[in-house]
Specification:
Layout lengths: L1 E11 L4 H14 L6 E5 L2 E8 L2 E8 L4 E12 L4 E5 L1 H8 L4 E4 L1 E2 L2 E2 L4 H12 L5 H6 L6 E4 L8 E8 L4 E6 L7 E3 L3 E2 L1
Antiparallel strand pairs: 1-5, 1-7, 2-5, 3-4, 5-6, 8-9, 10-11, 10-14, 11-12, 12-13
Pfam family, one: NusG
InterPro entries: KOW, NGN, NGN-like_dom, NGN_dom_sf, NusG-like, Rib_uL2_dom2, Transcrpt_antiterm_NusG, Translation_prot_SH3-like_sf
Family: Belongs to the NusG family.
Amino acid sequence: MKCENKWYLIHTYSGYEKKVRDDLKNRVKSLDMLDRVFRIFVPEEEVEEEKRGKRVITYRKLFPSYVMVEMKTTLEETENSLNYHVDSEAWYAVRNTNGVTGFVGVGSDPIPMSDEEVERIMKMVKTTVVKASEKLEKLKVGDVVDIIDGDYLGNTGTILEIYKDKEEVMVSTLNEKAKPILKVDQIKK
């Protein structure tokens, strides 16, 4: 048996995606499951719209009613197939978070997303419309942001410092030991 990290889709009530993400992050932390549930992510894209004669940037969910969760997965190879298993306590914690209706899979068995699917979604999310300098002007210390690129992709963080000259910010993440410095185009408010 081999362990690796795999992404799974969980189905949520419509409009509850961000609440599920936030509740699940808190639950994972309080249940000390940071070693089994790694990243929780609501795929969104920036959309430029016109409202009352002004151009504004809004965010549209790429997959309404779905949240992506990266979890530790055990891979079991048999003669005829590959079987993926998630930790039962982690499965229970995710499945019983308010707003979650279930995993995408067969019955109660979640099926991991393929690496190609995950890569395609991450590329879709990375497209930006706003220049970094314009985005930087709208940020302030204490803002909660989603990390949309890099090693901390899928995490939420709070801005601790802003470095305007480098167009970077320092954030605290769910894993409080990490305080990454990120380019402005790696985050969204």
